[in-house]
Task: structure prediction
Amino acid sequence: MKQAMERDVTKRQWYYRGSLKSCNYSCSYCPFAKRTCSRRSIQADREAFFRFTGRMLQQQKGGAVQIVPYGEALIHPYYWEGLAALSRSPVIDAVGAQSNFSFPTEEMLSVYREHGGELKKLRLWGTFHPEMISAEQFARHCRFLTEQKISYCVGAVGVPEYLEQIRMLRKALPDSVYLWINKMDGLGRRYTEAELEAFAEIDGYFRQELKHYRAELTACADSRFVEADGMMRRCNISRENIGNFYGDSVESKKEELSGCKRKTCSCYLAYCNRRDAVAPFFRPYPAFRIPVYPKAVFFDIDGTLVPEGLRRIPEHTARGLLRLSVRCEIYLATSLPLEAAKRKLSSVWHVFRGGVFANGARWQTQSQEKGSLDVILPMEAGWLTGIKEKQKAYGFKVHVYRKKADIYKVTLSFHRVRRGIQMPEQKQKELADALKIPDSCRILWEGNCMQITKQGTGKLAGILEICRAMGYQREDVTAVGDSLNDREMVEYFS
Result:
């Protein structure tokens, strides 16, 4: 099944920031609003940008290009000309830029078309600045883009004082347009619960903005951030120079070995690039911040839908799942047995179309078109008699999960190990050997629990069975999870 669902993994997310540091807006909080641009500086930025586009057109490893300027770039025709050239490349799937959407729309789109730009590849990111423009004026610009069938997103900084203007914008925009909210740095206090609810009602992903994502090199996806002089980093906030875009080779040994030097992925353009599906519904090119909903989504439960320490799914997460269920089919992928999963998700259980339970030892589908399936992979369980006799000596309790006479999962909970503490690997191996768990079983440790299923089971294996049954291709599916046990499925579908 894996081989049948392989996809192209050679694509890359490219970012470019030129030397431009000026804007036509004069927002009070922005340093670039106070800078003017000379003809010389504009010419230098133009030359640097065309140097970048020329080099990009020589790349074998294509993907997508997002312009992330200091200031406003799209008021300058040469950016549209360069984006048009990039869009014509057969190895570049999408091109776009961040903007305040103040550019003369018809004029600049004409420049893009005149230079052969493909509209279907254009992706625009528009930021609403309530100090400079009304919600209705901004929405009018957006509606024109919608009429032109251009993909775009819009958003604003989550300033509590501007909440009503942002609400007005949401009402004025087409329902199909995603309106994101960025957290406000420098607020000087935490958001109140009422403010959180209000912004989350506008942007279902707002709470994700408030999380702290520990920077981890192994979590970095394949992205490159290029400055005007060619200096390359992995993202816009990384402090590590990984080579020069205009050097002899874009792929260098230094790129492979260098680190990040950041403690957290602290903004969207940083955390969206992570392999651990922090922004799963914005794939394959999350930098554009335009949701792309798959046919099916598989969710882990503990730590993902239900935070550590809670027994039930939070209300705001439940509301998000209800909204998502209108756009795609929702499934589960969990180490929990079906009955335990149902208890934790009782308020929204009806939105799930099945899932993978007990680490793949049981999977279900429910479909009006294809009918319902409930499949278990039972294990040989003769060894259980001996295990039960060792409970007291080794300090664990046995939990057996079965369907009728067939046992499909066994969990050993070690009460001498504090809950939430992962047992050292050497100790895990010694216990498995001492308990004589047969090779026909798969052992997975989570905290103080040894989870035992049939060899060959797993979350990804179960998802692939559901894909086979439901006719999903790899590109139709997204998987969301937060633990090491989820990494295989998350990376496979990222």
Remarks:
- The chain has 16 helices and 22 strands.
